[in-house]
Amino acid sequence: MPETLDTIGWGILATGKIARTFARDLTLVPGARLAAVGSRGIDSARSFAEEHGDGSTRAHGSYDALLADPAVDVVYIATPHALHLAGARAAFEAGKHVLCEKPVTLRTADAEEMVRLARHHDRFLMEAMWMACHPVVRELRGELGTGRFGRPLHLTAELGFRVDAPPTDRMFDPTLGGGALLDMGIYPLTFAHLMLGEAHELRGVATLAESGVDLDIAVAGRYPGGAVASLSASMTSWSSRRATIATDLGRIDVGSNFHHPDHAVFTPYDARGPRTEHEVTLTGTEPVLGLGYGNEILEVGRCLREGLGESPLVPHAQTITLLRQMDALRADVGIRYPDDPEGPA
Ligand SMILES: NC(=O)c1ccc[n+]([C@@H]2O[C@H](COP(=O)([O-])OP(=O)(O)OC[C@H]3O[C@@H](n4cnc5c(N)ncnc54)[C@H](OP(=O)(O)O)[C@@H]3O)[C@@H](O)[C@H]2O)c1
Prior knowledge:
By secondary structure, this protein is α/β, with parallel strands linked by helices.
């Protein structure tokens, strides 16, 4: 690193739901192309390459073959969480940079190992926390940091949708790291971290499935500057997906889908009530590419061209902090995965 990359060759490892969404946004990013895709099954790789590739995209019937492809500069790992570390290790050993789906691993120790491997092999590593690369979220974070909207004192964020999948789905499978916290709760937790700083204290309550994974979780947090947060994630119900940040000067409402919002609005408040005539609407200082995965892809490209080992938008320390928080919350509410040091619940 750095590398002279006119066009960055992306390799997508696994052909599931998010890999397809990601591939659609990849086509919108200048200076990036889908060089190859790898799947456990060659048919799936071929149909993926046909649908999302540019005609010369190669299809591989194994992850190892994808990682051996010299046209691939950076690998996007889109397997279930429990398999991310093995994928990243193999990618680094093959000399590839890595964008790894969230959460990067099931637990802190494994995330630390992934970061150690990236540094050892001198490769770029970023958690695919696309929310942190989203133009509206970035602008909101910057403006909040200036104090323009007042002192943030109470943040709420909830993310949930019904997972109408068979019990064999990864979302219900403890061996694959299923459950609402790791899949969805990571967004409200990261949102609070981005807006308020690192939590001083987090406490959770959850409803667990028979398999031991959490179906619904609510978290109360205490953050720097006297701020508190109410955060939740659900696999059983369709929550608002909104976030609000109440300050001593007014309130910020983050539009539908706080993790990829089309806008955020600050409404000042005085003793007579909300001052809607003085509302400030944020829409981001750069365009949203596709659903917003394009901005994450752009950020990886920028970092690779600058020879960075990590992105300032999703630094390794943040990824590890969030995993540490989720480890503690799992212990708090009793979610155990089979490979946890204490073993299954
Ligand atoms: N950033 C986001 O917005 C977002 C959204 C959804 C999910 N995610 C993350 O992306 C990851 C994948 O989620 P997904 O919803 O795409 O999952 P999914 O639809 O189940 O796809 C996962 C893919 O991983 C591969 N795989 C390898 N071993 C597997 C195993 N033992 N069981 C199941 N799949 C296996 C399969 O691809 P092949 O058959 O091709 O090998 C499978 O299609 C998760 O870590 C999740 O947290 C991120």
